[in-house]
Amino acid sequence: MTDHLPDSFYQPFLSDAAKIRKPSPIHVLVPLESTPGVISLMAGKPNGDMFPFRSFKFTIAPTTLPNYAESLVSGAPLPGEEVEVELSGDTLRDGLQYGPTEGLPKLHEWYYGLQERYHGRKRDESWILTLGSGSQDLIFKAANSVLNPGDVVLIEAPAYGGVIPIFQNLQCEFVEIPMDAHGLRSQDLREVLNSWPSDKPKPKILYTVPYGSNPGGFTTSEDRKKEVIELAREHNFLIFEDDPYFYLYFGDAPRPASYFSLEQHMPTKDGSPRVGRVLRFDSMSKVASGGLRLGIASGPAPLVKAINSHTSSSSLQSFHLGQAIMIALFEKWGYEGFDAHIRSVSTFYRAKRDIFQKVMKECMSGLAEWTPPEAGMFFWFKLLLNPNANAGDDDGDSSDLISNKAFKNGVLALPGAMFYPNGRKSAHVRAAFSLLSEEQVREALRRLRETVLKEREGV
Fold first, then answer.
1. Which residues form the Aminotransferase class I/classII large domain (predicted)?
2. CA nearest neighbour of 163 among 135, 203, 185, 183
């Protein structure tokens, strides 16, 4: 018996739209052009000789130096010298031309190696990957490939606000699974599934951001992830692992393994295949460039192929020039250079987190409660709006205070209510610490403190 689920397993998971979606009959044949000895009269590609671009040159920062990130945070002179990279030749020609829907082959090879390096997943284990215009583009296509209107979605709460409309537009029913300082509360998920009505179809997917979740900043522990995988097997759902902050982990403990990694190591109770319930979404937006729009989906071939079919019928392909730029960067770095850059990135955001934490203690102690994040770029804190509240009282709602009163006082943040799919009230606030200097953080939190104190006077 193979250790991965067969392709036929995914047929019930595909949406009605995915089952009838037909790719471009011409684009399907494009890979045949690379057959040795074949002369192609097929594709209507423009002749690359008439493209005006001959080369691009860019410089990259000396991120391999251990004190690079500290210099950026402190404002000290940057150590080392910038490195020049040239994009030209075949890589540039491929980036400028029509090409494979799933992305440029060189970048595919790089990411197969990266997934093995960070998640222990080798490319011959019945999974494939595809490249998209950011991970949200891939999540949108995955959701539309799996969900029918009215389907139920298990979703962590609070949840990433950008993904909620994707499911809302499919008229999905949300079942919120709470989070706390240790991430997704797997025991709550178990209770929800064990009490599921017998006459109601069970959910097809669980959506979760396991590292430095947006907005909560929570990182889900390995033990909880293992329980979630067990529940996925028991109750037959897929895990959409949206992980844009994986490389922004800066916790003191070793980084917990991903769902994508863990599922291959956990034996099933009945000896059935272990691998194939995780569809993983990675992003280069937080570590290389948000504007290049490079996302990666890795997982079971039928699901990834459904994503590609959607891309083929909508935009033909993602941004290949951006992919060519990343190829030139990665070839200059190698995997060791990428590792060094990631260490620098996590060091940088840890320093930003520490500054925000320090000023929060100075300005908001007694006015808010929070757990410092171990990854990502967000602080999630609950405002103590009623100084006379007793335990168990309604926590209140931060929406008016944050959206109106704090904004009028010169500070802009996001009220917690917008991150709950079912529209509940929340006294929480999401604050991003990625861009601000210590001086700006101090002034922003001083204004927020002033606003909260004024609000409490009126209680």
1. 95-448
2. 135
